[in-house]
Design brief:
It is a single chain. By secondary structure, the protein is mainly alpha-helical. The chain has three helices and no strands. The protein has helices at 2-46, 49-67, 69-79.
């Protein structure tokens, strides 16, 4: 029974690695196709080298963000930590609290 579990764990590892490789291949090829399509469409509409270059630059920037999304996601918690020394815009509201004020609408008739 122990040998079966080891073989199953190895198979799961193999499938996981294959899935990661397929995801990397698909995201890379799809992003490349989208960047090329954006450049071609921009060139066809404007016949401008500058516009096509800007489209390529924008596509490359988007491609970089998509490929590094996990890095950006993980770094957000480090960058956006609440500070206890900052003054609150609403007096009496601390971190994690909000004060909402509501006012009745005029000219709407009765509310039911």
């Amino acid at each position: 029974m122990h040998a079966d579990v080891t073989v199953l764990a190895g198979a799961i590892d193999d499938v996981d690695r294959l899935t990661q490789k397929a995801t990397t291949l698909l995201s890379g090829s799809v992003m490349l196709l989208m960047v090329v399509a954006a450049v071609v469409v921009t060139w066809a509409k404007s016949k401008s080298v500058v516009a096509a270059f800007v489209a390529a630059l924008g596509g490359a920037a988007l491609w970089f963000v998509v490929l590094n999304a996990p890095t950006f996601r993980d770094s957000i918690g480090d960058d956006l930590t609440p500070s206890s020394s900052s003054s609150s815009a609403v007096h009496g509201a601390g971190p994690g609290h909000a004060i909402v004020q509501t006012q009745p609408l005029s000219g709407r008739g009765e509310q039911r």
